[in-house]
Amino acid sequence: MSEKAFQFKEFKIEQDRCAMKIGTDGVLLGAWASLEHQPDSILDIGTGTGLIALMLAQRSPALLIDALEIDEDAYEQAVDNFEQSNWGDRLFCYHAAFDEFVEEMQDEEKYELIISNPPFYAEDYTSENASRNKARFAEALPFSELVEGVSKLLHPEGEFNTIIPHKEEKYFLALASEFGLFPKKITRVRGNETSAIKRSLLSFSFKEIDLQENELIIEISRHNYTEAYKNLVKDFYLKL
């Protein structure tokens, strides 16, 4: 992904100061996130460029969309991207670590939707760039800290949505259940029909209900996208 600004249908993302560039995971999560209960308050943890918060501002009339970013450059970039958008009055970015934010906010009104494309570390991943490594490295926000914090900030009727490497799915589900969060919906993502499942999109709530599970395949062949993927992201990408 280049340093260049990324133009979506209804907003533009500048990303030259962000370690984590726009990638498929963020777009998938922002498009997949459940808005069936029309949340009034949304929190995007580790917003990076501000992508997911902006996607949710486009998709929902929620009056309060808060975003959180620990990296100073990324925080400043997200603020700029919010201000340049049509929804600047509904988007607010905090510059803080997640644990500090939880400490500060846990006695306030709870969020009806919490969403996070968490920084995770891939074993095959090396980079000379320290801020990119920090953005990529799970030590920046371990899953256990993420899930515990979410359990303190989420409205009793609320939902938590995330995307993680598929190989972490069992561990993540077990962790979530320790904090009273149960899976509602899981969509497992493959690059194409023959490739292994790479990502899991997960939706949690505090209620134990029948789990919906499905699969999403992104491409039929290189740059030839499946109808399911196109339908999911068509409101965002200019060209598909």
UniProtKB/TrEMBL annotation:
The answer to whether UniProt assigns keyword tRNA processing to this entry is yes
Among the Pfam families in the record, one is MTS
> Where in or outside the cell?
Cytoplasm
Q: Which GO terms describe its biological process?
A: methylation; tRNA processing
Please name the GO terms that the record assigns under molecular function. nucleic acid binding; tRNA (adenine-N6)-methyltransferase activity
Quote the Gene3D superfamilies the UniProt record gives: Vaccinia Virus protein VP39
Matches recorded under InterPro entries: DNA_methylase_N6_adenine_CS, SAM-dependent_MTases_sf, Small_mtfrase_dom, tRNA_Adenine-N(6)_MTase, tRNA_adenine-N6_MeTrfase
The catalysed reaction is:
adenosine(37) in tRNA1(Val) + S-adenosyl-L-methionine = N(6)-methyladenosine(37) in tRNA1(Val) + S-adenosyl-L-homocysteine + H(+)
Instruction: List, alphabetically, the GO terms of the cellular component aspect.
Output: cytoplasm
* UniProt-listed Enzyme Commission number(s): 2.1.1.223
Q: Where is the Methyltransferase small domain?
A: 39-179
> What general EC class does the enzyme of this chain belong to?
transferase
Record keywords = Cytoplasm, Methyltransferase, S-adenosyl-L-methionine, Transferase, tRNA processing
Q: Where are the transmembrane segments?
A: none
Entry's family note: Belongs to the methyltransferase superfamily. tRNA (adenine-N(6)-)-methyltransferase family.
Q: Which HAMAP family match?
A: tRNA_methyltr_YfiC
Biological role: Specifically methylates the adenine in position 37 of tRNA(1)(Val) (anticodon cmo5UAC).
Q: What is this protein called?
A: tRNA1(Val) (adenine(37)-N6)-methyltransferase
- Give the species this sequence originates from: Salegentibacter agarivorans
